[in-house]
Design goal:
Length: 307
């Protein structure tokens, strides 16, 4: 259990692991925030995430460009989001049921089309080495930050500003809070929700591309481990606030990094139990936010889960 570097390596490794693991949570949760703030819930983002991982990896392998892979993943995610939005615009259609169907469809298509890409090696997304000042390999690895994490952090703050200070943000909030008020203002709620759902799907697709093109950096059928569904709980925990989603994503990422971190510093006895930390945290979040007095605090009025 001893490590030559000392116990200070553990929090550093957890921080680095939190940054790496949190990025898919961040993108999926931002996509779900945008979707839910428009008044629609999308449980299909798990399938969108997996399909984004597959399509991003396949295109990166075929073209040699990881950024083209990210673009392909975003387009694939937008397509699933658009499909979800169009179906939910029909009368008497339940968005939760449609989301589950989209999730199954996305995962099925990813597994079917992704079989040829399990073995090939695609190029990785670039990262920035913030540990350049250190000669310790563990420090360099912990402070190696992918560009997508920085983009996601900027998007979280940008989305927060959009909801508070821009016309687009106001339109999305009005549509999410009251369909009747939106129609009275001359807006088209169904169109706005469909566009928001498509944009949210694109975010989830990018999160999937991160999984396959950086961490863990390969494509396989078990790559997601339920992160798309956990991100929905994360959004409720963050009270539909993009900046709070950023912090919650780091929290979930730190929980996911706990097991590998303990293993890397030589703690092997029972470390595998800590791999369940993200799922325990998700359960705890759901229990904590299920109080009748505060469960839906901050929720858009048109969400099906609030009615």
């Amino acid at each position: 259990m001893e490590n030559d570097l000392g116990l200070w390596v553990i929090p550093l490794a957890i921080l680095g692991g939190a940054i790496r693991v949190s990025t898919p949570f961040l993108f999926v949760s931002l996509g779900e925030v945008l979707t839910e703030r428009s008044g629609r819930i999308n449980l299909g983002l798990e399938g969108t995430l997996v399909f984004g991982a597959m399509s991003g990896y396949a295109i990166a392998y075929l073209t040699g460009s990881p950024w083209l892979g990210v673009l392909a993943a975003a387009l694939g995610g937008a397509f699933f989001g658009l499909t979800h939005g169009l179906i939910c615009s029909l009368p008497r259609v339940n968005d939760i049921a449609v989301g589950i169907a989209i999730m199954i469809l996305g995962m099925g298509l990813a597994f079917y089309f992704g079989k040829p890409y399990v073995q090939p090696v695609a190029p990785d997304l670039p990262s920035i080495n913030f540990g350049w000042w250190s000669d310790v390999p563990q420090v360099k690895a912990a402070l190696r930050v992918n560009v997508l994490f920085l983009i996601g952090a900027a998007l979280a703050f940008g989305m927060w500003w959009m909801f508070r200070a821009t016309k687009v943000g106001l339109i999305v909030r009005v549509v999410g809070d009251s369909t009747d008020a939106a129609r009275a203002m001359g807006l088209r709620p169904a169109l706005i929700r469909t566009l928001a759902t498509a944009a949210g799907g694109a975010f989830a697709g990018v999160g999937g591309a991160y999984l396959s093109l950086f961490y863990p950096g390969s494509w396989n059928e078990g790559i997601s481990s339920g992160q798309g569904l956990m991100a929905v709980a994360l959004v409720i925990f963050a009270r539909w606030n993009p900046i709070a989603c950023f912090g919650a994503a780091l929290l979930f990422g730190g929980a996911g990094a706990l097991g590998p971190t303990l293993q890397s510093v030589g703690i092997s006895e029972g470390y595998y139990l800590f791999f369940a930390a993200p799922y325990v945290l998700t359960l705890g979040v759901l229990i904590a936010t299920s109080s009748p007095s505060r469960a839906m605090t901050g929720a858009p009025g048109e969400l099906s889960i609030t009615k």
